[in-house]
Amino acid sequence: MKGLISAILLTASASAMAADVTPADLEKAVAQDWSTYLAPLYDHFHRNPELSAVEVNTAARMAKELRAVKGMEVTEKVGGTGVVGVLKNGPGPVILLRADMDGLPVEEKSGLANASKVRQKDRSGVEQPVMHACGHDTHITGLVATARQLAALKDKWSGTVIFVAQPAEEIVGGAKKMMADNLYQRFGKPDYAIGWHVASALPTGTIGLAEGVTYSAADTVDIVVPGIGAHGASPQSGKDPIFIASDIVQSLQGFIGREIAPLKPAVITVGAFHAGSKHNIISDKAELSVTVRADDLETRNKLIDGIKRISVQTGRKWGLPEDKLPIVTVREDERAIPNINDTELTRRLHALYAKAYGDKIFTTVTRDSMGAEDFPYLVGPGVKGVYYNVGGTPQAALDAAKAGGPPVPSHHSPLFKVDGEAAVKLGAQTMTLAVLDLAAKPGS
């Protein structure tokens, strides 16, 4: 810890934006911590990913790392495998900082020297390959880095920081379970909640910070279409669930185009269609796996209602009896709500980072998809929340991809890789600066 403190040179003129610790000071301190401590920690996390809701070893390591921070009070098994560290430092605002811990059931083919070779049983007991294919290893390493810096700078801020190592983001369940386990009641209701996600599509050294909706609402929907089995040569003797389910798939896209307002973002994607067993058999069941996305809850509810209505009406149209109509199930435990960045906090952080780094720190984030996040479940009523992106790919690699060179692997790809060092450093710096600004000690 003394090494961290000595790395920060408090010689700059007083600055209200970050309790007179300059960005250069902080950059130097984080860089030193990376070279002496954080790099092997990140390597460990990347080599040893764990699946959603079974992040037992990752949680234990996060608890160990947070306990090593002087003054940190750590609680394990919050909402399952969640870990919460509380760093109290006098009166002032309560600030929640969040990082997600889980990996994905993907076999890593990144070619990295520290590529994961892990296999693990998921929560259903099925053995899967595991990879940090979404960069959560950078998030948890960055959270540890932030905790270490804030502990070294306790004379520059006043308040309470809650460090949340959250499980099960990939199945959109971890944040809700931590809240259901009385996160606020046990550790304090935050005034602010902040998180970040590495983005392979953004250049290293930049962040994407935007007001309003940055992630969509998401629902996982299962549709079971019963049929009446028959010989394939005698279709009139049965009710073909493949034909009926195919009509449902087509009708859902018509529903999006004809019943949802053009300026209301909405997606219904049928990601899986399972039915049948043999060429000449009309099966007795078809199953559809559907993801639903919207940017507001009114549109989300309309989409869910439409899926139910169209599924049942299509079954009736093709003569299914009332006791064999399609069954639509919405998985409430996998539901995500939109992430809506608080305008006031977003503008405050934008001004903070612009003053610290100049406008070069910002990159334009074009929303060309409707990805989802469960971070907003941690942002309760009256809490100001911001979730931003940190660039993960060198600009040269992005430029080469645009020029026809090797494409930059997307998140969830077995080829996924980011510049972990750059992401951890900038993520930790920006998060630390946010706390120093929001909880600046008067007169420091």
From TrEMBL:
The protein's required cofactors: Mn(2+)
Annotated signal sequence range: 1-18
Keyword Signal: yes
UniProt remark on cofactor binding: The Mn(2+) ion enhances activity.
Keywords: Hydrolase, Manganese, Metal-binding, Signal
Matches recorded under Pfam families: M20_dimer, Peptidase_M20
GO molecular function: hydrolase activity; metal ion binding
Protein name: Amidohydrolase
